[in-house]
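Minutes, project check-in
Item: structure for the 161-residue chain
Input as provided by the requester:
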Amino acid sequence: MTEGVTAIGFPELTRRMAALELPPVDLVVGIGRGGVIPAALAAQRLSCDLRVMAVRFRDDAHRPERAEPLVIPPAFDVAGRRVLLVDDVARTGATLRAAAGALANAAAVHTLVVAGRADYALFRIDSCIAWPWQVDGGGQAAVQPSCAGVGSSGRARKICT
């Protein structure tokens, strides 16, 4: 593995997901692309329905492509439901805030990330991450190109250790 890169495997990811004390929710919403697999793991653990919402903010090299995240209005109703909003990484929280804003008619919105700043975080990682679900053309774990500094503020309510 490349120096300065943390590889996260499914066994550790699922162990931490199982150990985390999550709030009761009615629906898990994954932010597409990065939050879909972690959201699926959370939905399975919580025996909840899963929906995906699109937020456009970063390009394939993980660089911001616009000043603010653009939320595509979800095609599902969250009125009165308790929602767990899931993404892979949250550095500034801008994507989570924008997505939560689109879910404003929910009874409650809690946030979960694999790494970074949210209500709940599985890891506090200050390096780039090699995800078990992303591979490069040679079948090796792919690393997001510009991801240094993830979680340096680490303002999660709960972090699984």
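Outcome recorded: The first strand starts at residue 5 and ends at 7.
No further action items on this chain.
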